Amino acid sequence: MKDKTLLARLRRKDAAALSELIDKYSAYVGTVVYGICAGKLPREDMEELAADIFLTLWKSAATLRADTLTPWLGAVARNAAKNRLRQQNQESELFEDRIELPDVSPEEKLSAQEERGRVLAALEQLAPADRDVFVRHYYWRQTVKMIANETGINENTVKTRLVRGREKLRAALSEEEYND
Amino acid sequence: MTKRISALLEELTLPPPELSQDKALSCENIREIAIKKLNDGGEFSPVAAPKPKKKRLTILLAAAIIVALLSGTAIAVRQALRYEDIAETPGTTVVAKTPLGNVTFTVRETIYDGKKFEFTLAVTPPNPQTLLFSTTEGDMAEQLRMFYGDRRVLDGEITLAQYMAEHGYTTILVLGFADYTVEPDGTIVCAGINHLWSGSGTYAPGETAYAKIDVLEAVLGADGNQMFGGTDSAAYGMVKTVTIPVKVSGKYTQEELITTYTADNINHSIPELGIRVDKIVINSTVTQSYGKIYWTIADSDKYYSVVPALRTNAPADLFFAAQAGQTLPNDMLYGSLNEPPLPGSRNVVLDVSNDWYVGSDTVFAVLNESTPIYVVLSIDMKNYETFTVTFTK
Fold this sequence. Notes:
The structure holds 2 protein chains of 2 kinds.
Chain A: H1 3-11, H2 15-37, H3 43-60, H4 70-87, E1 98-100, H5 112-125, H6 128-138, H7 144-151, H8 155-173
Helix pairs in contact in A: 1-2, 2-3, 2-4, 3-4, 5-8, 6-8, 7-8
Chain B: E1 2-4, H1 5-10, H2 27-40, H3 60-66, E2 77-80, E3 93-98, E4 101-112, E5 117-124, E6 130-135, H4 140-148, H5 160-167, E7 171-176, E8 180-182, E9 188-190, E10 195-196, E11 208-219, E12 238-247, H6 254-257, E13 259-263, E14 268-270, E15 275-284, E16 289-297, H7 300-312, E17 317-323, E18 326-327, E19 334-337, E20 347-353, H8 359-368, E21 373-378, E22 384-389
Parallel strand pairs in B: 2-12, 6-7
Antiparallel strand pairs in B: 3-4, 4-5, 5-9, 7-11, 8-9, 10-11, 11-12, 13-15, 14-15, 15-16, 16-20, 17-18, 17-19, 17-21, 19-20, 21-22
């Protein structure tokens, strides 16, 4: 059944529709929550957090208009997980989160869309294994230790891959690859 | 100038890392917690919660739609494809020239009920090595990139990349629509195409309507990188728009196709709203059912005290169920209020949508049995009424 249809049924407080949405999206929401909270929250708390995300959907159905719920659920799940960790002071320390970029004039400054495009392009240029590690850390906020556990590589290798990703991103945003 | 990497990535929508089955959170536990909290909060629907149905998705493309992601800003390059060989409808064939070969779009069927125009299209891939794939409109290239290595696309069993390797597909042609069936030879038949409305929103017989379909060609690298045509990266796929002319046939008119079902003498009072529901009429065509609910203001003071809330709350919905907790087959008879119930109004028109071309027949079958139909009238989020009526043809 289409998300739009299920959403319309949610607006009518149709609990069966909520159940179908949980069937359909619990794996996705669970993966997002687990990706951020694993090792920091017990499993039961992660499941409760995932349930809360579906309750948020239930309560938001009246005003939510979407053809597919994946982006909405993904964003809500990610924010909810991060907020939960923040409340418990369990936010991940990120490995060298800052990059130094050359100063540019206002005319040379990238628009948000250009910047987003370059970040995406930089990610695409990374080898899949490097990209996976980079995104896990800086986007999903998994610790270096957790990434090592999840992917079966040692922590130093994780850091090496993060450094490669940082360098690629820095180059992409420094015009180095666009001025040739 | 210093920037935080996490902030740079913040605005992107990226798929979560794969999670092994043993680490996955329990769907049943999540459901149990959610439903318990709803019950505790008194927000649970009086229509009851039937036993959840497990739906295993086995069809590649159907599954792909379920996880259709991202509909954000399209950054793809758009070009208009040329078409040729326009024939009469149905049977109109449009051949879209692509670097992968010619893709043929054939109009299978058109239906126009005087209000709504729908048609089905069959899409034939250019060669056996090209897999037809479908995503929602939007950033198709980004969606495909995410599908490619996502195991959930194929019900947790296999990734799209693995499926392609196993079946000898080397390229993908992505079509931007969501409703379709797949025929044994791989032809996709799609309905409910995003079409370009005429100025008035309706068509005169003989007038030509245009379907619009976005097409993305993807050529796969061995490792899944550089998947898309040309030198662009994955995020810059080549999305092209195919426009297909479809002539509106004169033989379909609203009058010829309409069937009316009426439930009158309902006499159901809703004291919280100060109204009494008197009659519900459904006019069904092959594409859609148009419902109309009639009510009388029984308690003016009450009614006018809640009208402001009715105007600003979520649209009222009318929903029919075969019995408590179950929707009619194909989920077809429900809809949202087109307009707020203005003071003094005595009837409200509901646009009762259904899934076209299978929906109406099923509705007819159910209604012809003269079985009681469970009506759920949701005026707003807090006022939710159920009652039973019997329609007669």
